[in-house]
Specification:
Layout (H helix, E strand, L loop, with lengths): L1 E2 L9 H14 L10 H18 L4 E7 L2 E11 L13 E9 L8 H16 L4 E3 L6 H9 L22 H5 L11 H6 L8 E11 L6 E8 L7 E6 L2 E6 L1
Parallel strand pairs: 4-5
Antiparallel strand pairs: 1-2, 2-3, 3-4, 6-7, 7-8, 8-9
Helix pairs in contact: 1-2
């Protein structure tokens, strides 16, 4: 096990490339966000440079075979509280990267790197280590759990939905409005939730006016097999009523 000084960070590129390819295989749900390897390494290299410059106790360990780096662990020592709800060490450590070359996986290289990380952290007096794992990388999760790690935080990511397209008064007047038999079906439809017997995917919530003191007028369009007449749903604190259009 060797320490990797800042001057040798460029030698980690093949190891980052191996991890990058592993990420693509284990996270198919993120394929529409995929970046090129060149972009990924450029930004990661700059990030690691910043970390190792700004955080004096941050360190990099590598496994070396015949002068070739076959695995590395990048560990940050972070000078900030980890959580307000539970007691954790401050500062704490973060395993930012653990990567092993494909030909050396399954040969205890990762375990040896983690043993080296623990020894370094004990020497620094750091009691807690956080580890980020892609949710679908179950093999990595099992590896860390065997070492004693426990689940702590789940992070979700989503694209912010686009704003609804304005609908003209003429279009609103021509919408097919149907009375749903379930009391809360209109609200479910507006949230995009399934309503028995209705084609929710084709539903369009046109406008919702909410008030604690006044009736709420909900207008929606939905497609359903059948010839029910168009109806308007007026709902409020006093219940709901219908009117023929």
């Amino acid at each position: 096990m060797v320490r990797v000084p800042r001057s040798r960070l460029g030698e980690l590129e093949p190891l980052w490339a191996a991890l990058y390819e592993h990420h693509q295989l284990t996270a198919p749900q993120l394929q529409d966000r995929r970046r090129t390897l060149e972009e990924s390494w450029r930004d990661r290299r700059a990030e690691e440079e910043r970390w190792i410059t700004a955080e004096p106790r941050t360190f990099v360990l590598a496994a070396e075979v015949d002068s070739m780096l076959v695995g590395y662990a990048f560990v940050r020592v972070v000078e900030e509280p980890l959580s307000g709800s539970w007691e954790f060490a401050d500062p704490h450590a973060e395993l930012a990267t653990l990567s092993v070359m494909p030909d050396y996986r399954g040969q205890s290289v990762g375990g040896a790197l983690m043993s080296g990380v623990y020894a370094e952290l004990r020497a620094l007096g750091i009691a807690d280590l956080t580890i980020g794992v892609i949710a679908t990388n179950t093999r990595a999760a099992r590896f860390y759990e065997r070492l004693g790690a426990v689940p702590f935080l789940t992070t979700y990511v989503q694209r912010v939905p686009e704003a609804a397209t304005p609908v003209s008064a003429d279009v609103v007047n021509r919408l097919e409005l149907k009375l749903l038999s379930e009391p809360f079906a209109i609200a479910r439809l507006g949230r995009g939730e399934p309503v028995p017997g209705w084609a929710t995917a084709s539903a369009q919530l046109v406008s919702v006016v909410r008030s604690d003191d006044e009736l709420s007028v909900v207008r929606a369009r939905a497609s359903r097999t059948g010839g029910n007449p168009g109806r308007k749903v007026v709902a409020g604190a006093q219940g709901h009523r219908t009117a023929e259009l």
